[in-house]
Amino acid sequence: MRQFQQSFVVETRGKALYDVTERVRDVLTNADVREGLVTVFIAHTSASLLIQENADDEVQRDLERFFARLVPDGDPLFRHVEEGPDDMPAHVRAALTQTTLSIPVLAGKLALGVWQGLYVYEHRNRPHSRTLHVHVLGA
Amino acid sequence: MRQFQQSFVVETRGKALYDVTERVRDVLTNADVREGLVTVFIAHTSASLLIQENADDEVQRDLERFFARLVPDGDPLFRHVEEGPDDMPAHVRAALTQTTLSIPVLAGKLALGVWQGLYVYEHRNRPHSRTLHVHVLGA
Amino acid sequence: MRQFQQSFVVETRGKALYDVTERVRDVLTNADVREGLVTVFIAHTSASLLIQENADDEVQRDLERFFARLVPDGDPLFRHVEEGPDDMPAHVRAALTQTTLSIPVLAGKLALGVWQGLYVYEHRNRPHSRTLHVHVLGA
Questions:
Q1: C80 CB near a chain B CB, below 8 Å?
Q2: Which of B79, B110, C91, C111 could form a disulfide with C106 if both were Cys (CB 3.0 to 4.6 A apart)?
Q3: pTM, whole model, 2 decimals?
């Protein structure tokens, strides 16, 4: 058994889900593991990770509509406002989703379901560079 | 150190939590590991995983009451409606809970707290077959 | 490659985030691993784990304000009330955050972003002793 690590950066352009499934698959290819476990980590607190449906883009837009209603920009509840009206909502949205995800590797492939894609969920309005670390364990 | 993987299917019958603690313990028994880490993954985006209290069933029903109020079926906010009024709420509920969970193994047992059980949280109304993959690492 | 496990207890004094980053770093030092993966698990269902911003304490208080509004103590929706008005909200808040987190180790350090801290999120009003298990894998 062995491990392999690789990091990459995702450039985001506002609140939305960004598909990183292929980039994580590329890391798995580099790791050359047939059976194991892939763990993805995002090194930020105003963007997060999510496994979601990859078939209908409307699902991702509905998800964004839900979070925009649940944690609206400029919510008067918040006092941490120096970094803009979307900053504290971004931290809350990140807390409600994932900073880390683990996906088994079976027969050389990520064991994702047919409809599952792996996404970076950007919660800020302006463009950001988001760093992801991928750890692969296996044989 | 070695790894072991096994998958199983959970048959669900509507929105509720389904206890899979014993089934994951069975995989650990098959893996024959004394110290290590168990990672559980659910290969779906309208059902999820959750560690919750296993003592009072009312906790699980209250949890369902909360999610039913937070993300009601048929919410007019959603546009992805072709698969039924419970489909998009199911994706949101899955996003707010877990797709993957890791539990340490100590002295041959899952290191769950006394009150912790491991559940599949079904978010659709109709019966579904849900596939879980379990990865065990250890010695 | 090898693994190392260590547990510790966090004493909490009411609803708030408690920084455990240094305590997890201490476990990593004991494990003496340069490249690998640290997994943290909390053995409770009314407290949880969270990676959040460590720069401005107001972020943590805003997060608490948000959860207090989303899942208020004494919410008449809940029927599991024997253990107090903050008990069922605690289970819901734990379900909405994390029971387990994995963080890669790069060059002997937790690969946390500059602004990321690792927190126990206590959801009960009274003091509690919370047990965390830390699993370290690596070389």
A1: yes
A2: C111
A3: 0.98
